[in-house]
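Monosaccharide ABC transporter ATP-binding protein (CUT2 family)
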Amino acid sequence: MAATPLLELRGIDKSFGPVQVLHDVGLSVYPGEVTALVGDNGAGKSTLVKCISGIYPIDGGTVTFEGNEVAIHSPRDASALGIEVVYQDLALCDNLDIVQNMFLGREKTSGIVLDEATMEEMAGETLRSLSVRTVKSLRQLVASLSGGQRQTVAIAKAVLWNSRVVILDEPTAALGVAQTAQVLELVRRLADNGLGVVLISHNMNDVFAVSDRIAALYLGRMAAQVKASDVTHSQIVELITGGRSGNLGLPAEKPSEFIDITPGEAQ
């Protein structure tokens, strides 16, 4: 596992008027790893992702990318760094084909004409690099794709632009068993290709199937960030529902300190 995070957040605060949603949150995302971001509804997961992606400005704290402190003021800033987010609604256009969706807003042109050949070649190369074999034609309308295929296209769109960190918001929420397995395999492959992946999920089976680390938010505070191999389902559920796990000895009162727990360290 890499020693230096690709993306690191320290002491992130975010308020909306008098309501403070994030309190001194820290998070580390490493290259070649899947970090699961878990928490109950209202824990602050969506707000944290929108701060990372530049939709919301942070009120306090620092963000470092590849070891350098950065300021992210807009989604364009995040994309320029190599941070891409695949939201739960996927943001795909049913009336466009796969290539058109992957290049939507970033079309390649030759003079004043769309360079369809280059876009199709790049789209095909990206899907092949992810070992995607479920798409019959790059010119299929997205409306004709299954849920798993749509998720695949959305993920491929995110990695098309030399992304370094990909954040996936509930990628298997509306999928069946076979399609879920297909998407989880793709998530794991992203990390194996050297990207830092953040997986937001309520499904603990999915989390433990592909994650290297698990970061648990509780009421806007980071309860803990632990190695997935060192914790159980029940311990993570305790962190999600109570902000602490008695077996790990991690108090919710110290949210800014996320620790890699190794066997023998639990109190």
